[in-house]
């Protein structure tokens, strides 16, 4: 199953803001936050212990990130509704997932759930699931008609595949419908 759950300790760093300089008449862009590269490297190294043969994932992916931020001693508020921006924190982690070789491109992320909270144990909780796995779970629960009442998508756990069946009621057939065409897929078609 293409699924990954882990916690990476450390102080999450945002990515996205750049500073520009002119060197020998040419513009040069650098990250405004100098700690971004070391944070991405830490994430990539920590993820190596989860490495398996399914990497890099190629299907659409759902990613949930929970950023645990250290609460400054002077802060009494419950939520960290101040900088760093949550989207910039996510950008750092998504780029690290590409650098670690887990995914080919962060454009594969079709669902992105983000949270940030104060915690005494700073870091990021990462939960990833290939979207095909979500489809498989939905179909396992209860087959439902897809295109119309004569088509059904069914997950077959024995063969670990899907089949789409076209059903028709024939005039001289018994009262129940009979399948006239069956398509089988190892992965759900996109």
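^ Assign residues to that structure.
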């Amino acid at each position: 199953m293409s699924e990954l759950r882990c916690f990476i300790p450390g102080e999450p760093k945002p990515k996205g803001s750049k500073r520009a300089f002119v060197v020998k008449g040419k513009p040069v862009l650098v990250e405004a936050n100098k700690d971004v590269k070391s944070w991405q490297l830490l994430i990539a190294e920590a993820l190596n212990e989860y490495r398996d043969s399914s990497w890099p994932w190629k299907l659409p992916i759902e990613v949930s990130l929970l950023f645990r931020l250290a609460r400054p001693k002077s802060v009494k508020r419950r939520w960290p509704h101040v900088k760093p921006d949550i989207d910039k924190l996510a950008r750092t982690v998504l780029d690290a997932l590409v650098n670690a070789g887990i995914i080919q491109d962060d454009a594969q992320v079709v669902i992105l759930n983000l949270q940030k909270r104060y915690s005494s144990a700073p870091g990021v909780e990462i939960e990833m699931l290939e979207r095909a796995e979500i489809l498989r779970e939905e179909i396992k629960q209860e087959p439902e008609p897809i295109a119309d009442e004569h088509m059904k998508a069914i997950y077959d756990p024995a063969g670990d595949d899907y089949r789409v069946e076209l059903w028709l009621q024939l005039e001289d057939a018994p009262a129940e419908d009979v399948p006239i065409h069956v398509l089988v897929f190892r992965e759900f078609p996109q």
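The two ends are 18 Å apart (CA to CA).
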